[in-house]
Amino acid sequence: MVQVCLTDAFYERFGDLEISCTEFSVLSAARANPGTNQGEIANALMIKRSNMTKIVNNLAKRKLLTRSSTNSDKRAVTLQVTKTGAQLLDLVEAQVLQQDRAAVFALSSHERHTLLGLLGKVADSYKLKYRSSSD
What we know:
Elements: H1 2-14, H2 21-32, H3 38-45, H4 49-61, E1 65-69, E2 77-81, H5 83-103, H6 109-134
Antiparallel strand pairs: 1-2
């Protein structure tokens, strides 16, 4: 239920920018990890490769990122955020952080720390389950 509320808040705030939560995550990951290939970002964000291809194609078509092959493996595609993509991220990231802070405002510092720890455990557990079922 919380994820639905946060996703709704994201689209309410950024709907006019025509960027989805997933596209935002891909752009953020690409900027934070320059030179990382598309598959590694897909794995980190737990996005199916076929869906990742569609997302990357859409972001590239909108000139928010570029793709290039690596010298060592022509099949591997690295992602680079463009100037336009960086400008969009700059606009959205600060507001997302503000939105995240507002979402946990009613919690004490200790409660926020506990929540983040518990969410990390859930994410780790899910990653193990997700990765082992896809092997």
